[in-house]
Write a structure and sequence with these properties.
Layout lengths: L11 H4 L3 H16 L7 H7 L9 H14 L2 E5 L7 H5 L3 E5 L1 H18 L6 H20 L8 H27 L4 H5 L3 H52 L7 H26 L8 H28 L4 H13 L4 H11 L12 H4 L18 H6 L15 H25 L4 E3 L8 H17 L7 E4 L5 E7 L5 E6 L2 E6 L1 E7 L5
Antiparallel strand pairs: 1-2, 3-8, 4-5, 5-8, 6-7
Helix pairs in contact: 7-8, 7-10, 8-10, 10-11, 10-12, 17-18
Length: about 500
């Protein structure tokens, strides 16, 4: 029976003063609903509840039950089963059960808690189940090809299972893509926990990506095989579902049949878009694979942040004691002044733009003790902003600065192009034959090597791909496990397994 109260009243017990007490009572009624118990007496609630602050008095429990019934979470009726005399008959005794609104609130709270506690999963079992359901559907349709009508109940059952498994896979994949790196949790964890989680996550992702690559092709083939015949099958399933619709005229039945058929077609379209390319969009399975692959650099970035934070910890008192020792070790006052300027950042502050009259005439290297004082308007101290009156200051000519920056950018571009010419020869070379690399060439080499290895499915598998900027094409072919490459750079020596690499520009280099 629907409650006549305001629906918001049903949630009053969650934020009331005795919210924990009310929730203990409602948990008992929710458990009774799952156990198919129709109604409860107050003494049964008192015995079954898990009271965090001790067992309450019977009067307190009766008041709470009455309040929940007033809010609409419970329904009550007189309890006459235990009446043995006239006094018991006139004494207020009630049986309580969940109301319709109370059941809805408990279901909503349970879903809310389950959603918050759910951890993102990459379900390899779901991929296997989807492939087996599609294979069973194809076998059933092939077996009924010569008959007039296929076995619609079995087809309906297979499609329901397929939708349930696929929805679970999609929901968990969406949760995974939303926050797999767990950067907040990692930054609060200990080093051993971080290392352990890193190993488990990498193994987990490798196993899932292997299953995803292996099973996606099979699922895509089943989907393509079933697509020409699926519309008729879905229409038959929609007709079967429409039989259970509320009674109405022929038009209502036809509308219900069309609505259910349209819903099944949308589900099939979603399944097809997960494993087959639709239009210009790549399959969702490919996006999930890319997101899973990107989770590893995110994890490494979080670990680097932890290491940086730990290495940056300092004790201010210890720093000042060390600084005092450095001051005591200075040979003369000039060294002490230089140390003070470096330690306390006593550098020019012309960029504050407070004195427009003398700022332009002073170079940035002027010592603060030799520069004229900065006049700070009282309004700046009081309100944190300053609005000087009068004409605006002249725009400073920064053409020389822009020319300097343009020259630096051109020089950097020249070095990058030289690195591309050095590596992108179009000829197959062993890594051990690259010779010595300068800083820019080595940086470009590491970038290309990282992009190629990210696409490699196994250590013995050749890989080739186009770089993210589309300028170069790289092919990487592993050599024997005993072959080693040694590349000398300005930053040190880079060693590892030798590969045959071919780097080809996609267009002619200038």
């Amino acid at each position: 029976m629907p409650t006549e109260n305001d629906p918001a009243e049903l949630f009053r017990h969650v934020s009331a003063e005795k919210a924990a007490f009310y929730r203990c009572i409602m948990d008992v009624f929710a458990a009774a609903k799952r156990q198919y118990r129709l109604q409860l007496r107050p003494d049964e609630v008192l015995a079954d509840a898990q009271w965090p602050a001790g067992v309450p008095r019977a009067e307190e429990l009766n008041l709470a039950l009455a309040q929940l019934a007033e809010w609409g979470n419970l329904e009550s009726q007189p309890d006459t089963a235990r009446v043995s005399n006239l006094n018991d008959f006139y004494r207020a005794r009630f049986l309580y059960r969940l109301s319709q609104g109370g059941e809805a609130v408990e279901a909503a709270l349970a879903t809310f808690v389950q959603t918050l506690q759910r951890r993102a999963e990459l379900q390899t079992v779901a991929l296997e189940d989807i492939a087996s359901r599609l294979q069973a559907l194809s076998t059933l349709l092939d077996g009924s090809f010569d008959t007039t009508e296929p076995d619609v109940p079995k087809i309906h059952e297979i499609l329901r299972d397929l939708v349930r498994v696929f929805e679970s896979l999609a929901e968990n994949a969406q949760a995974f893509m939303a926050g797999v790196a767990r950067s907040i949790e990692l930054q609060q964890a200990e080093a051993d926990a971080v290392v352990g989680y890193k190993r488990r996550l990498i193994d987990y992702l490798e196993r899932f990506m292997g299953d995803l690559v292996r099973r996606s092709d099979a699922i895509a083939r089943w989907v393509q095989t079933l697509s020409p015949r699926i519309d008729h099958v879905l229409l038959l399933v929609a007709e079967r579902e429409a039989r259970d619709a509320a009674p109405g005229d022929a038009q209502d039945l036809a509308d219900e049949k069309f609505r259910r058929w349209h819903a099944w077609r949308e589900r099939w379209k979603g399944l097809r878009g997960w494993f087959l390319q639709t239009g210009h969009e790549p399959p969702q399975a490919e996006l999930l694979r890319a997101r899973a692959r990107a989770a590893i650099p995110q994890l490494l970035g979080a670990i680097a942040a932890i290491n940086e934070r730990r290495s940056g910890r300092s004790d201010r008192s210890a720093d000042f004691r060390a600084l005092a020792g450095w001051f005591a070790a200075c040979d003369d006052d000039a060294d002490a002044h230089r140390l003070a300027r470096a330690a306390f950042a006593l550098h020019p502050a012309r960029h504050f733009s407070l004195n427009t009259s003398s700022r332009d005439s002073l170079p940035a290297t002027t010592r603060w003790a030799d520069a004229p004082p900065l006049e700070i308007h009282p309004r700046l101290r009081e309100y944190g902003e300053s609005a000087p009156r009068g004409a605006l200051a002249k725009v400073r000519d920064r053409s020389a600065d822009r020319a300097l920056m343009a020259g630096q950018l051109a020089e950097e571009s020249r070095q990058v192009e030289a690195a591309r010419r050095r590596l992108a020869t179009g000829h197959a070379l062993r890594l051990s034959e690259l010779g010595e690399l300068d800083t820019h060439a080595f940086g470009l080499f590491l970038q290309l090597l990282g992009e190629a290895l990210a696409e490699q499915e196994g250590p013995e598998t050749p890989v080739e791909r186009q770089t993210g900027d589309g300028l170069l094409h790289i092919r990487l072919e592993p050599l024997g496990p005993a072959d080693r490459a040694r590349i000398v750079t300005t930053a040190g020596v880079f060693e590892g397994r030798d590969h045959r690499v071919t780097i080809t520009p996609t267009q002619a280099l200038p």
